[in-house]
Write a structure and sequence with these properties.
Length: about 150
């Protein structure tokens, strides 16, 4: 898949996974995200290798991230979206979401999935809604998968 780069006001969004600052992403997800606390760096690296990644940069320094898992035909899962605290309030999360949703390989999908308990206001702007039929939704969830004390 061809890498895409978009520029705006000195910021760049790139899908080139070679530019990602794995340590920065790991630090945020593992220590600040709330949804991936304790994620091993090896697990993060594997998820990046197998996903479509969007890095957000300010003068070459990574300041945000989003990842999509998809078959590029019917379904996509959006996860690990963040913008560092000091860059929030500048419209960057909206721009990041716009670029994710407009990616040419993610058009015409039947379903997008997102699990979040933060920033629902942002995702609603891009068509995400609460599950209409929770009675048909199922999941297998292990919230302690990254915990050192829980069996894997």
């Amino acid at each position: 898949m061809e890498f895409i780069e978009k520029r705006r006001d000195g910021y760049i969004i790139s899908t080139d996974h070679r530019k990602l600052e794995i340590q920065l992403i790991h630090q945020f997800l593992s220590n600040e995200s709330g949804w991936a606390n304790g994620i091993p760096i090896e697990t993060l690296q594997k998820s990046i290798e197998n996903g479509l990644n969007f890095g957000l940069y300010d003068n070459g320094k990574q300041i945000g991230f989003a990842r999509v898992i998809s078959d590029y035909a019917t379904i996509a899962y959006l996860g690990d979206v963040f913008v560092l605290q000091e860059y929030r309030g500048k419209g960057l999360s909206k721009w990041l979401m716009k670029e994710v949703m407009e990616h040419p390989n993610l058009q015409g999908l039947r379903r997008w999935i997102l699990l979040t308990d933060t920033a629902a206001w942002l995702y609603k702007k891009y068509g995400f809604t609460e599950v209409e039929r929770p009675d048909i939704y199922m999941e297998k969830h292990n919230p302690k998968v990254y915990s050192k004390t829980e069996p894997q």
